[in-house]
Specification:
alpha/beta; Rossmann fold; seven-stranded mixed sheet; 38% helix
């Protein structure tokens, strides 16, 4: 199964160099201080300064890795949930964030989310969906995210727009244009609030649970 292969891949990468495979911009030698600073900067730019994400109490970081952003989410949200496909990533996150009492971490199978229906205000996913290999897997995950969101909840996600030549590369994933992704999220029940392009290779979507 694709899901099992994804899980095996990310477990292997996590054991090899989790900081690099979460944030490869600084190279293989990225330090813990550099890693934390990158998380703080990303949180500020992508979440705390985003007006569409204001006045939310409970956030889910989908594909949280070792909690690079969750550390900073914990200061602004009452509860912070994080799920990741890699057991090693979750274990590292638990150690890194062990002093934060409002942070909750779960390993997943890569598709299902171990949270109740209508329990989350905001789902955020960054540098995750770009690595998912099939459109079917993306659709199953988006259905799960819709399920756990409260009515009026927001899902902010970064998607790949450039087609990959070799899907066997660790960074490669399925791409969507704005028409093809609408064919996924609209039947599920999401309403599009906003899109924003990132260079030539990706774009952000802000989706609202429309019920």
């Amino acid at each position: 199964m694709i899901t099992n292969k994804q899980k095996e891949l990310w477990e292997k990468l996590a054991k090899k160099n989790s900081r690099y495979y979460i944030n490869s911009d600084r190279g293989h030698g990225i330090t813990e201080d550099e890693f934390r600073e990158s998380g703080k900067a990303a949180y500020g730019h992508l979440i705390s300064e985003d007006e569409l994400l204001k006045n939310r109490d409970i956030i889910l970081d989908y594909g949280c890795g070792t909690g690079r952003l969750m550390e900073f989410m914990a200061k602004d949200f009452k509860k912070v949930f994080g799920v990741d496909i890699s057991k090693t990533m979750i274990e590292e996150a638990r150690e890194r964030l062990k002093n934060l009492m409002n942070v909750y971490l779960k390993e997943t199978d890569g598709e299902s989310i171990p949270l109740p229906d209508r329990s989350i205000d905001l789902v955020f996913s960054y540098l995750v969906f770009q690595h998912i290999k099939t459109k079917e897997m993306v659709e199953r995950i988006i259905k799960e995210i819709y399920r756990v969101l409260l009515p009026g909840g927001i899902f902010k996600v970064l998607l790949r727009s450039d087609k990959q030549k070799d899907m066997n590369k660790w960074w490669a994933g399925v791409n969507f244009d704005k028409k093809s992704i609408k064919e996924v999220y609209s039947p599920i029940g999401f309403k599009l609030l906003k899109t924003e392009s990132v260079d030539q290779h990706a774009y952000w979507l802000w989706l609202e649970k429309n019920e």
